[in-house]
Amino acid sequence: MSHAAVTGHLALPFFNAGHQALGRELAAWVVGQQVDESDDRAACREWVRRLGEAGWLRYCVPAEFGGALPELDSRALVILRETLAYYSPLADFAFAMQGLGSGAITLAGTSAQKQRYLSGVAQGSLLAAFALSEADAGSDAGAMATRATRSGDEITIDGSKTWISNGGIADYYCVFAKTDPQAGTRGITAFIVDADSAGLDDSEHIEVMAPHPLATLKFAQCRIPASAQLGELNGGFKLAMRTLDIFRASVAAAALGMARRALAEAITYAQNRPMFGQRLADFQLTQAKLGEMAALIDAGAMLTYRAAWLRDCVGTDDPAAAQAYTAAAAMAKMCATENAQRVIDMALQMHGGMGVKRGSKIESLYRDIRALRIYEGATEVQQLIIGKSVLRSFSAQA
Ligand code: COS
Predict the structure, then answer these.
(1) Per residue in 14-37, pLDDT tens?
(2) Looking at residue 182, what DSSP letter applies?
(3) DSSP one-letter code for 312
(4) In the chain, which residues fall in CATH 2.40.110.10?
(5) Are strands 229-230 and 128-131 parallel, antiparallel or unpaired?
(6) In the list 50, 144, 257, 326, which could disulfide-bond 86, CB 3.0-4.6 Å?
(7) Domain 4-126 of CATH type 3.10.180.10
(8) Which residue among 241, 243, 251, 326 is best mutated to probe the pocket of ligand 1, counting the most ligand atoms within 8 A of its Cβ?
(9) What is the rounded distance in angstroms from the CA atom of residue 149 to the CA atom of residue 207?
(10) Could you read off the pLDDT of 262-308 as tens digits, one per residue?
């Protein structure tokens, strides 16, 4: 398969020569990788090993701690996820979790914490995870009930986290817990919990429609040292939001990769499928669908690249810029994932019976894309974030 479908957009002005080289080299590398994905946990470990060995995970951490670039570069993350997702959504997942599971350490870790965890993440020798959600606290992350209490130099965690990606295979978890239950979102703190900590059970695997490592974590008098606190006491909610902000644009990019793959599959199929004396691609109905699919992908792509460019080139130090970026990332995540779902559904429809045949690429993409509209902030949460931002900007202008 030609790399043009995943590298053509690199000529856009959002990207520089470094990004263009990254995209081309990654596409050439990933196309040669064959990983047996029948066991999601084993496959994920294998992808992390290969991604680490080849140096791609270095884009998840800053250069000081073994990373490829001085700081996390949103456009590089976007290119990496879009390209990996085009070839293997599980490879993309493995890459993304190394970033999401270490992002809070990059943002707020002490230098000892960064030394201890980040270079292992970049090499693929440590598997990372981000543990925010609970059974009754998904979109309403501030409603979490997991409790962390300090006594001397020790912290005790009790409660449960669920839907934790990399759960069961991670070497450590960035866990968010209530440290001041009366203070709402201002009473949450982050901690780094090593997977082998006494009192942590991460063995409950959750099976989902597009298999990937996912588990429930149970904390029963789980004891960790006070030095495992990540960032400020009671500053955990904002740290979680800042971490999610970085990676939301990259979820959009993963959706783009899957949608571009679906379009490529649809085009190839339409050009080869004979129907009523001509090819499927010769029908105007088919051309109209392909046109709509291409436009939906490009619309999501422009929002995604804009969000990544804003973070890299305008920054988030100024509060107004930070708010603009948060809204832009939310728009990108919402539009790219929703559009990708439509594109993949249209591609499946074009394949007819072949589209629902187990084992076909379109059938697996149809399952792979669904969770992206839910995790790291469901579409409805993105709508809220954008809506609040629009109201704030409007009031500020009035
Ligand atoms: N960056 C920095 N700070 C942020 C922020 C961001 N992106 N978003 C919110 N905050 C801050 C707010 O400024 C506010 O600060 P103050 O306490 O100083 O006022 C605080 O966090 C609480 O914000 P808010 O009142 O908006 O919180 P809500 O409880 O209303 O929640 C949503 C807002 C719904 C947006 C949030 O809970 C969310 O993103 N939920 C989805 C969580 C998610 O993605 N889950 C998936 C987990 S990973 S698979």
Answers:
(1) 999 999 999 999 999 999 999 999
(2) G
(3) I
(4) 130-234
(5) unpaired
(6) 257
(7) no
(8) 241
(9) 32
(10) 999 999 999 999 999 999 999 999 999 999 999 999 999 999 999 99
Mean pLDDT of all residues in the chain? 96
For the cut 70, the answer to whether the pLDDT of residue 2 exceeds it is no
Question: Does residue 397 have a pLDDT over 80?
Answer: no
Q: Is the CB of 237 under 6 A from ligand 1?
A: yes
Q: Which residue has the tokens 């997702």?
A: 85
Number of other residues whose CB lies within 10 A of the CB of residue 393: 14
Output the CA torsion sign for 17, 21, 22, 24: positive
Chain position carrying tokens 């979109």: 139
Are the CB atoms for 328 and 397 separated by under 8 Å?
Answer: no
The single residue listed with the structure tokens 């130090």 is 317
Residues of the chain within CATH 1.10.540.10 domain(s) are: 4-126
Distance 245 CA to ligand 1 centre (A): 10
Provide CB contacts within 8 A for 188, sequence distance 6+: 142, 144, 176, 177, 178, 179, 234, 236, 237, 240
Yes or no: domain 130-234 corresponds to CATH 2.40.110.10 = yes
Scan for tokens 């409603």, then name that residue.
143
Which residues pair with residue 200 across a beta bridge?
219
Residues of the chain with CATH 1.20.140.10: 237-397
Which residues are marked as active site? 376
Using most ligand atoms within 8 A of CB, pick from 185, 239, 316, 388 the residue to mutate for ligand 1.
185
328 exposure class (CB count in 10 Å sphere: 0-12, 13-18, 19+): buried
DSSP 167: T
H, E, C per residue of 136-176: CECCCHHHCCCEEEEECCEEEEEEEEEEEECCCCCCEEEEE
Q: Where are the alpha helices (DSSP H) in the chain?
A: 4-7, 17-30, 40-53, 74-87, 89-108, 111-123, 236-272, 284-309, 319-351, 361-370, 379-397
Q: What is the CATH number of domain 237-397?
A: 1.20.140.10
Residues 6+ apart with CB under 8 A from 278: none
